[in-house]
Amino acid sequence: MAGNTSSDTDATAEDLLLVEAVAEGLHDEMAHDDSVIVLGEDVGQSGGVFRATEGLYEAFGDERVIDTPLSETGIAGAAIGLAASGLRPVMEIQFMGFTYAALEQLYTRAARLHARSRGQYPCQLVLRAPFGGGVRAPDLHGESMETIFVHHPGFKVVVPSTPRDAKGLLIASIRDPDPVVFLEPKKIYRAFREEVPEGAYETPLGEAAIRREGRDVTALTWGAMTRPTLEAAADLAGDIDVEVLDLRTLSPMDRETVVASFEKTGRAVVVHEAPRTGGLAGEVIATLQEEALLYQEAPVGRVTGWDTVYPLYELEDFQLPNTTRVREKIREVAAF
Amino acid sequence: MAGNTSSDTDATAEDLLLVEAVAEGLHDEMAHDDSVIVLGEDVGQSGGVFRATEGLYEAFGDERVIDTPLSETGIAGAAIGLAASGLRPVMEIQFMGFTYAALEQLYTRAARLHARSRGQYPCQLVLRAPFGGGVRAPDLHGESMETIFVHHPGFKVVVPSTPRDAKGLLIASIRDPDPVVFLEPKKIYRAFREEVPEGAYETPLGEAAIRREGRDVTALTWGAMTRPTLEAAADLAGDIDVEVLDLRTLSPMDRETVVASFEKTGRAVVVHEAPRTGGLAGEVIATLQEEALLYQEAPVGRVTGWDTVYPLYELEDFQLPNTTRVREKIREVAAF
Amino acid sequence: MVRFPSAVDRCEQLLAPDGSYDEAAVEALGLGRETLRRMYESMVGARALDERGATLQRQGEFHFWMGCRGLEAAHVGPAAALTERDWLNTEWRQYGAHIQRGRPLVDILLFWLRGYETWETEDVDDMPAHERRLPHIVAVGTQVPQTVGLMWGRNLQGYDEVGLVGVGDGGASKGDFHAGLNFAGVFDVPVVFLVLNNQWAISTPVERQTAAETYADRAAGYGFEGILVDGNDPLATYRATRRAVERARETGEPTLVEALTYRRSAHSSSDDDARYREETDLEPWRDRDPVDRFEAFLADRGLWDPEYGEAVRERAGERAREAADRALEIAEQQSPEEVFDEVFANPPAYIEEQREELLALYGEHGEEAFRW
Amino acid sequence: MVRFPSAVDRCEQLLAPDGSYDEAAVEALGLGRETLRRMYESMVGARALDERGATLQRQGEFHFWMGCRGLEAAHVGPAAALTERDWLNTEWRQYGAHIQRGRPLVDILLFWLRGYETWETEDVDDMPAHERRLPHIVAVGTQVPQTVGLMWGRNLQGYDEVGLVGVGDGGASKGDFHAGLNFAGVFDVPVVFLVLNNQWAISTPVERQTAAETYADRAAGYGFEGILVDGNDPLATYRATRRAVERARETGEPTLVEALTYRRSAHSSSDDDARYREETDLEPWRDRDPVDRFEAFLADRGLWDPEYGEAVRERAGERAREAADRALEIAEQQSPEEVFDEVFANPPAYIEEQREELLALYGEHGEEAFRW
Ligand SMILES: Cc1ncc(C[n+]2csc(CCOP(=O)(O)OP(=O)(O)O)c2C)c(N)n1
Ligand SMILES: Cc1ncc(C[n+]2csc(CCOP(=O)(O)OP(=O)(O)O)c2C)c(N)n1
Ligand SMILES: [Mg+2]
Ligand SMILES: [Mg+2]
Prior knowledge:
The complex is a heterotetramer, with 2 copies of chain A and 2 copies of chain C. Helix content of chain A is about 35%, strand content about 20%. By secondary structure, chain A is of the alpha/beta class.
């Protein structure tokens, strides 16, 4: 069975880490649909640098689990052609910071193939990439550039924050007929376990999850930032009643849930790792004031990465939002 | 003399079109500083597909005005190395939609060279590219992806909207020691003439221009959208008093001027060609409500390109914001 | 004038510029009268379409046009070497290749008027030859790895199909070219890479594009064969491609075929080639005109006389005219709601919301409000 | 095991794996005792640094480490062929190349601890050899066109300098590689492209990386020479590079030098090579160890005995230890305000504003608040 590489032998087969849930999602969907294939650098025998494709090579062989030459342009270009041929490629880019060499292929073709062929060729592919910081890795291994996919028309963008969602959202992404960018928060790949249903199931795209209900302030976030945000909410419990939304799908955003929460609280904080300027907090804020300005009681707070060249190793702790920063911003917004 | 290719023989030497002002800016700065060189596809003998480098090859020869092979990766990579060597390369990408193949070089190196060498190697280069739609050109010739440079740390991003600014901002960009993305609104390359001072001069980066003063609503925009925005303001004169800000530099944004205007009007509309979701209107709105929520009297309106694959030829008229759309949005915001 | 003097000596050629030819080599091709005439008609058809497109562009009916004069042998010969079930992804100006595959002219033209393409046949297995292609690309070179992916996928699904992808001397400088050829070599993907070396990329001459002696020399760097052919000889481009297609089908091995030719028209209707080359540069290439050459050959084989030639030209002109009229008529029927069509196969709600927003504005303010 | 059996036959070699050698060829190099010993010491120095780095990584002091065992001849020989004024941009694991150029070990290590590098000398003209480089790259292959731009620019400014850029068998698959070589060919840029074919890119073996017989075969596609050398023979890598450097200096013509070798360590400290190769795969490569081979050669020339070898190893170990201690000490001095240092040469106001915001948070909540 794919995925379960933990030495924690007490865990049941389905008590999985996020990275294991990804591997299991791939496995189960490949078993379910033999047009699904996986390609990327080191996804085969080695099982991926994070082991997110572990067990697939053994289960499905080298025609469906394909180690490619070191070219993100080639991987994306090939994946687009594979999708046009009728297969359902899941391409892995080893780290989000290496998607850049694939962007021309993705922007100029993957995002437009369906439109420019008037529906003849869907571009049913998934781009999987670990993203975000916090693992003390070298340059380009901590990128959070989700915005560049959200802003470019033609993609759907998904970020899970729990093992169960990771599996269900990944399968839904593979089944979705459009190109989906599936970003895996590597900081929490192995942070905690969760019961994950066996077999293939879908967690629908486009739906935010309310991770904690509250009446005073809405905290919106995704990916690895969900944890510090929940911690901050817990810290404030009794004092400030924080509702935590995990967006899960960044494009299309679940505006209904977001707006409904804000109508209730009138106050919000958006938390993301990406740099502040031009980050998705701006989009959330624009939406809130377009749809619910009359409910707004305080400026929406932004807790984000700084607008700086991502600092490495020890210094990344000062770059990433953390529980304290989230908590203090919520306090500020609540006190406005 | 570079630049003046018009058949309008009545124009004085300095009454220039925007594209001529670009060519003259390049010419005058190359004359002023012999470390400035120009490279790109067809920038030499042919003078560039828009004639924005016209006359440079004749004036400065093929060591300083360099036609390259057809590789945006190569152009960007070479420009970075040229900058590190002590020259001041101005690289042209033929259309903004072809910058994508250069993004890996730009993101992973141009934006970080100074930081990762702790100041040893500035990356003093300018990327010039015509951007925006409206000229009935094929796919990828109408892109407005300024956000992907604004959001990525390490760049400055400049968009002129008049001939005089085009020349002054371009020279300031060449002299700025950091990598500057200089986007030229091709729709207005030849739309109107303006007196442009002779010789090299700088229009400072980071300063918005107040194109029209007003008390009721602030309209913020840049590039080719400045014209329909001003037209909309003129249409509404007497009825609604619109202040029009042309941001000119998108990164760093002139928050002071933007916020001051909003504090006066309490109402704003942001106009851009780029798709709505994740576009820079979000950043403007986030800034306004962070810094001046208490002045806000209505939701900030967004008049933008739609979140669709850029429609071509005749249909692009329905994609781009126009005077009517801007005017109606201003009315709506004023009436809120 | 000729970028690769040594290369030209190395070119495979069956027909000399004056139409004289290597009889045995021609016999060995086993091409019947029908096929030869079909190829000829495709070449003439492309030329007529090109003339029509250029004229309409000058008259303001087309926004943009790209010419193919002098390149007809490089476009038609390779296309003729494919079977009905093979695939063809072209560069922008390979009109003759599409015509040879049976694509309606109106369909070729509509791309330039609407920026998208449509298909008649939904199921790939039922697709006729001319539909076996991806939509036109604009980002130079990106089609190369895409074609590799496409044929790899067809192959993995058990289809015995070969893909031909055209790329220019300019396009061969892109990283996509490198990645595509390298992937094809590693994964034994049945693709023929047709480098259309017309010696210009807009204003950039091929000696500014690469220092290589030939593009065919690049193939060894990917582990397969490169063939250099005279791109103005339709039988040479046909033969080399057929050999490559057969090999690809039998062994999965790709081949690079370089067709050395010359772009005689300006790059496009937006380009003014007088800025970067002399009128006299073109002369030797007029003398090597592929249509003239093929006519001389066909005449010698008793397959061509002036009357037949005239009839073919006339019919081609007629068809191009009709197709252009029809295409302009169809393109006029576009309406604002199309702006949101087919962006997604499974569109999120915002697509419909924004469509409604646009239509409401359009309804209220009318067409004029949108035209500026 | 050996990817390119035919290639190995074609490799230039001066020293056989057992240390026996071609006397005339060695004499022709004209390398003095000093130089030979310096190269040897660089190789041993790299090995010692590698051991130290790997150990400290296992102990949790370094976050990450990349090994160079077995690659020392491929790294040191080419570096030794440069003059003081030439430039060297390396891959991540070319420690020996930096050591040969005189770079302080602490400086090499600090990259892995801080992610950035610092220079002592501001003015390029005063830079010592080891400073003539760009900062380390992480995006594989991107250094290739950058080095071309750098040397092109130095050349345009009248400097008579040559650049050497290292790229892996994996990196040679990137579009950057293609663009860099192509530009260098077209513009006659004095760069030597050193393809470090160590037969692995993480878990991907070279036969999955390319179907080419050799990487040297790629050079013809860009119009210049490719040379294949035994990458475990320091004199072969030295000689081929020197020839290439001389040609580049004289004519501006670039050269591709492929050093065929083998990565014996795992890719990095995060990699587990047992997942994708057999322990026995390594054996033939241990037998071809470059340090052993060079020792045998030097011994035969009277330049090496066990005592000397021991002394060199000891000194190298000592230096690596000292450098690591020092680097860890320096790295510890980092503080949060650095987060905004040198992002821009001319920083916009938001840099200072955000720095203040961070420092205020830090001041109020302390270090712990930021560590999670
Ligand atoms: C990535 C990219 N860069 C630039 C362009 C602009 N452009 C369109 S065609 C062309 C020249 C192409 O030359 P070549 O590949 O030789 O093909 P040809 O036009 O000669 O058929 C250029 C630069 C583009 N379409 N795509
Ligand atoms: C563009 C890019 N893609 C992926 C990676 C991840 N990565 C780091 S090293 C490496 C393998 C490099 O192999 P090779 O070029 O042969 O160099 P070697 O490690 O063998 O020295 C990979 C895939 C990266 N750093 N950059
Ligand atoms: Mg060409
Ligand atoms: Mg390697």
